[in-house]
Design goal:
By secondary structure, the protein is mainly alpha-helical. It has 2 domains: 22-128, Orthogonal Bundle (Arc Repressor Mutant, subunit A), CATH 1.10.10.10; 130-166. The protein has 6 helices and 3 strands. Strand 2 and strand 3 (96-104) form a beta hairpin. The longest helix has 34 residues, at 132-165. The relative contact order is 0.09.
């Protein structure tokens, strides 16, 4: 017999609302952002270019996979597409032959300001009519949630690794 859990629906309503609101807002935000980025040949990977652009040191494939919380093989595929479209070059690190550093091409550097502008405009449209105090509070709450989830995922990854090595 499968156990049945009864949650207090009054307590669950805010949690359901948060979950639904986050998913829906993220979906709509990304849809609008990707529509504005369409035609640049980036698919959904503009943020990767921005991260590489903002980094003071060369980033590796593994570092990017960790930053975006995706597996390394998926990141390799994404970087391959970006390389095929002449947005990045991938070079072996002379100090560590296992490491592959990612560099922006002149083509990518040229469109970074346009990507930043589109991102700023999308965020401005999404936050239209929201007082700055509420935006600050929202950012604080989302940052706490991000940290909580990152911690949980890191613990699960460690547990899965430990279980696999037993």
């Amino acid at each position: 017999m499968i156990p049945v859990f009864h949650f207090n629906t009054i307590e669950m309503q805010p949690l359901k609302k948060i979950s639904k609101s986050l998913k829906h807002a993220s979906l709509l935000y990304n849809k609008l952002l990707y529509q504005q980025l369409a035609g640049m040949g980036l698919d959904n990977y503009a943020e990767i270019l921005l991260i590489i652009s903002d980094s003071e040191q060369p980033l590796s494939q593994n570092q990017l996979a960790e930053l975006f919380q995706i597996d390394k093989s998926r990141m390799v595929n994404i970087l391959f597409k970006l390389s095929q479209n002449d947005f990045i070059t991938i070079k072996q690190d002379p100090d560590d032959r296992r490491r592959h550093n990612i560099y922006l091409t002149p083509k990518a550097r040229k469109i970074i300001p346009e990507i930043e502008n589109i991102l700023n405009n999308t965020t401005t449209m999404a936050s239209n009519g929201i007082p700055s105090e509420k935006l600050d509070c929202c950012i604080d709450v989302l940052e706490i949630m991000r940290k909580n989830l990152s911690t949980i995922l890191a613990k699960k990854t460690i547990k899965m690794f430990n279980d696999a090595t037993l």
